[in-house]
Design goal:
The structure is a single chain. This protein has 15 helices and 21 strands. Helix 1 packs across helix 4. Helices cover 30% and strands 29% of the residues. By secondary structure, it is an alpha+beta fold. The N and C termini lie far apart (79 Å). The chain has 3 domains: 225 residues, Reverse transcriptase/Diguanylate cyclase domain (Alpha-Beta Plaits, 2-Layer Sandwich); 164 residues, Dna Ligase, domain 1 (2-Layer Sandwich); 86 residues, no CATH class. Strand 16 and strand 17 form a beta hairpin. The strands form 5 sheets. The chain has a 7-stranded antiparallel beta sheet, with no helix packed on it. Strands 5-6-1-7-8 form a 5-stranded mixed beta sheet. It is elongated. Keywords: DNA damage. Pfam families: IMS. It comes from Granulicella mallensis (strain ATCC BAA-1857 / DSM 23137 / MP5ACTX8). Belongs to the DNA polymerase type-Y family.
């Protein structure tokens, strides 16, 4: 038996609280920003971006110390946005391998991806790592990636190269050489062990790896052996893959309450872009988007937008959400918003050679949204007959494009159209041998050539007006030889004839 080949890619993103908030605020990415944690007046800096670090901002600073710096933007920590960013990174890593282990902590993101055997799909490990880093950049996350056959070696190298957001690959058997120049800080040493190594003059992993193992164990116990193996890149690891559910969700907590919907569209556009990037990574599209607004006073305002076809057009989604919120505005100021998307297939409807031209789905959706804003939600849709014989009973369903491709998806069999007259028009009918022979309609006389009926209708046999209508389908011709196909009814309770529909 041979040992299966192992190859792991470590994704390390430091300052996760700051990156999680700035990914949805692109206007702040070029300014110094810090994230404050804790309750006033005991707040402290828990995360910062690179520009704030250059100015000298360090973790643990108080608001008073931050006020001594000029032009620094202060943000309050949002656990919900961090959870959304973490889920997006794990989801991105999962597109390269189904085996992903999460080892993140409160301030940094770290995951290990088992990429053994993926060369035929994504190419060499260096190509895969670069593609993964670019995919993370599209999500607004800066991370360093290291690839090695040893899990701990990849973790140490990714931490050591985090300042440059670099991509590194350790060749098989070269783990010790690749880790030799890294500082001991990549091992997460305890304060006691860090002080001991400092007194010994040990500052890098290479210096620790050169210590005699037995002497190190004699002085530090089994922890010394573990640290020695980590420094040499020989520490074994039990891989524990994470089984995460695919969910497209983004959340943003607003810095100040928002009352104007136009001011909300900028945040909605950024969040939609993130959802579209995540859906595109799985060759999917957004089938529906649910907007959940948290309002002042604890109320929640939820709206769902569903176009005719799944699409990844950001401007279309912004327009549809804008029109929907204008028609159903929230009743209080907005504190936070959450966008949850339902994925769908990126299908295309292909027209046949002799099929009629269909309107573009994007234009159709926007047009329907504008009509709904005028006539209401119940006034737009596709008429569907109800399962009853009662006249004029139908319901409206949302417009949908049939699934499938080719002409069979859009072609319909030839049918005779029946135009309902609303209101019905009165007419005079002449009978002969218990069947209608002629009638006067719109000041013209028609001689009946064929008559079909009668049918007694009402649709509700349990009602008080049981079978009150006598219905006939007639084919008649006028004196000028024009043909008329129609449907007439006789109201048995009121004793009158009415023209209710015309056949085209």
């Amino acid at each position: 038996m041979t040992k299966p080949a192992e190859l792991y890619a470590c994704v390390y993103a430091k300052e996760l609280p700051a990156q999680a908030m700035l990914r949805l605020r692109p206007n702040l990415q070029q300014t110094p920003c810090v994230v404050m944690d804790g309750e006033p007046p005991l707040q402290y800096v828990c995360s910062r971006n690179a520009r704030a670090h250059i100015l000298g901002v360090s973790h643990g600073m108080t608001p008073v110390e931050i006020d001594t710096f000029l032009s620094i933007t202060v943000l309050l920590r949002s656990r919900a946005e961090e959870a959304a960013a973490k889920a997006a990174i794990l989801e991105c890593a999962g597109t390269f391998s189904p085996r992903v282990e999460d080892r993140s902590n409160d301030h940094t993101f770290l995951c290990i991806v088992d990429i053994a055997g993926t060369e035929t799909l994504f190419g060499p490990s260096m190509v895969l790592a670069k593609n993964l880093r670019e995919r993370l950049k599209m999500l607004g996350i800066t991370a360093s990636i290291a690839v090695s056959r040893n899990t701990h070696a990849a973790v140490c190298l990714a931490r050591g190269r985090s300042s440059r957001a670099d991509v590194s690959v350790i060749a098989a058997g070269e783990e010790g050489v690749a880790l030799a120049s890294l500082p001991l800080a990549v091992l997460d040493l305890s304060e006691g062990h860090a002080e001991t190594f400092s007194l010994w003059g040990i500052h890098t992993l290479g210096m620790l790896a050169n210590l005699p193992e037995k002497a190190l164990i004699a002085r530090m116990g089994q922890e010394g052996k573990r640290l020695h193996q980590l420094a040499r890149g020989e520490m074994p690891h039990l891989f524990l893959p994470l089984e995460s559910k695919f969910a497209l969700e983004e959340r943003m907590e607003l810095d100040t309450p928002v009352e104007v919907l136009d001011s909300l569209l900028f945040a909605v556009g950024v969040m939609l872009e993130q959802l579209i990037v995540r859906a595109t990574g799985r060759i999917l599209a957004l089938a529906s988007v649910t907007v959940t607004l948290s309002l002042e006073g604890g109320a929640v305002h939820t709206r769902t937008v569903r176009p005719a076809l799944p699409t990844n057009e950001r401007q279309l989604w912004i327009k549809l959400i804008h029109l929907d919120l204008e028609a159903h505005p929230p009743q209080a100021a907005i504190l936070s918003l959450t966008l949850t998307a339902e994925p769908g297939n990126t299908s295309k409807v292909q027209l046949g050679l002799f099929s009629p031209q269909l309107p573009e789905p994007a234009r159709l959706d926007v047009t329907l949204a504008r009509i709904r804003a005028i006539v209401g939600e119940d006034g737009v849709g596709r008429a569907v007959l109800k399962d009853t014989h009662r006249m004029d009973r139908f319901s409206l369903e949302p417009f949908t494009v049939p699934a499938g491709t080719g002409s069979e998806a859009i072609s319909t069999p030839e049918r005779v159209a029946l135009r309902q007259l609303r209101p019905a028009e009165s007419l005079t009918v002449t009978f002969q041998e218990n069947r209608p022979s002629a009638f006067f309609f719109r000041e013209k006389r028609y001689d009946i050539e064929h008559s079909y009926g009668p049918w007694l209708t009402s649709g509700e046999w349990w009602g008080s007006t049981t079978w009150q209508l006598q219905q006939w389908d007639l084919v008649a011709r006028s004196q000028d030889h024009s043909l008329l196909c129609c449907r007439v009814v006789y109201d048995r309770l009121q004793g009158c004839w009415q023209m209710v529909a015309l056949y085209d």
